[in-house]
Amino acid sequence: MTVLDVSGLSVSFDTDEGIVDVLDRVDFKIREGETHGIVGESGCGKSVTSLAIMGLLPKPSGRVTAGSIKFAGRDILKLSSTEMRSIRGDGISMIFQEPMAALNPVQRVGNQLLESLRTHRSDISTDKARAKCVEMLGHVGIPAPEQRLREYPHQLSGGMRQRVMIAMALVNVPDVLIADEPTTALDVTIQAQILELLKELQRDYGMAVIFITHDLAVIAEISDSVTVMYAGRVVERAPVLPLFDGPQHPYTKGLLGSIPSLAGEPKTDLTTIPGMVPTFFTMPSGCRFSNRCEHAQGRCSETVPSLETVQSSHGVACMRWRDLAKVAT
Ligand SMILES: Nc1ncnc2c1ncn2[C@@H]1O[C@H](COP(=O)(O)OP(=O)(O)O)[C@@H](O)[C@H]1O
Ligand SMILES: [Mg+2]
Known about the structure:
Number of strands: 12
Mean pLDDT: 90
Number of domains: 1
Bound molecules: adenosine-5'-diphosphate, magnesium ion
Order of helices and strands: EEEHEEHEHHHHHEHEHEEHHEEH
CATH superfamily: P-loop containing nucleotide triphosphate hydrolases
Oligomer: single chain
Largest sheet: 8 strands, mixed
Structural class: alpha/beta
CATH class: Alpha Beta
Strand order of the largest sheet: 6-7-8-3-9-10-12-11
Radius of gyration: 21 Å
C-alpha cells in the first residue's frame, strides 16, 4: 500500500535575483514500511522536497507551483494550516540534519519531548506522558533517560542530541518518517550507530522512511529503493540492487564512481563528476546534466527527458540511455 505519493511536485522561490524554479515535477511513491532513499549532490532540492512534504516551506518566498502530495490518499497541499499541524509529528515527522537548529536551546529536553507528545495526545495524563518520554529516550539508546530529561540541548553531545531529535520525531509513532541527512553532522562512528538505530526503529515500528543523503554508500546500507535527484529533477529511480548493479543515468554512474571501494584504496583519488551543479539561473536547457555529461549530444540540450522504463520499477530520464546500455553489453 502506498502511504505517500508525491506527484509532479514543483517548487519556486522568490529571491533578490528573481524567481527560481527549484523543483521541477518531482515524483516518487513510498510504500508502507519501506525505506526509500533520496540521493543527490548538495543543492539538488532534497531538503526543499522534505520541507514541502512537511508543509514547512519558508513563507512567503517559497511555494508549491504544481503537483500533489497524497498522504493516506488525501492531497495534503490542500489542507488548512490547522489540519496540517495535526498531521505533522503524528502522520509524518522529520529528523533534521542539524539537531541544534531544530531544538529549542532554552527549554529542557524533557519539556520539548513532552510537548511533541502532548500536541497530539492531549488526553493522556502528565505522569503517563512523562513515562512515555523516558521510555522513548531509552529506546533511542540514551543512557540515564530520567536525568537527560532535565538537561538542556547544549549539555548533550552531538550524537545524543540527534537521538533526542529522533525520539521527538518518533514519540507519536508516525506513518512516515523523513530523515534529512540525519548523520551528516556527526562523526563516522556515531553515524554508524545512528544508522543502526534507525534501522532497528524502522523494524520495531514498521513506519515508512524517506532517507535523504548525498552519500550513495549510506543508501546501499539502509534503503529498499532509491530516487536519484539532479538539479531539482528526478533522473533515476530503482530498487536498491538494480540501481547499484545496473545504473543507467550518467549522473548515477558518476555518483557510484565516487564511492570509495571497500578494497581499502585510499580515499583521496575518487572518480568525481567534473564540474558543479549549475545555479538555477544558469541551468542548461533540455537535460540539466547535459553540460557535465560526457555522453551528451545536441538533442540532450533541446528536450527535457522524461522518465522511461528500463525494467519494472526502474526508470531513467536520459535521452541516451538505450544507446549507452547497448555499448555496455
Ligand atoms: N529559502 C530559499 N530561498 C531561495 N532559494 C532556496 C531556499 N531554500 C533553498 N533554496 C535553493 O533551492 C535549491 C535546493 O536546496 P536544498 O533543497 O536545500 O538542497 P539539498 O538539500 O539537496 O542540498 C538550492 O539551490 C538552494 O539555494
Ligand atoms: Mg539538504
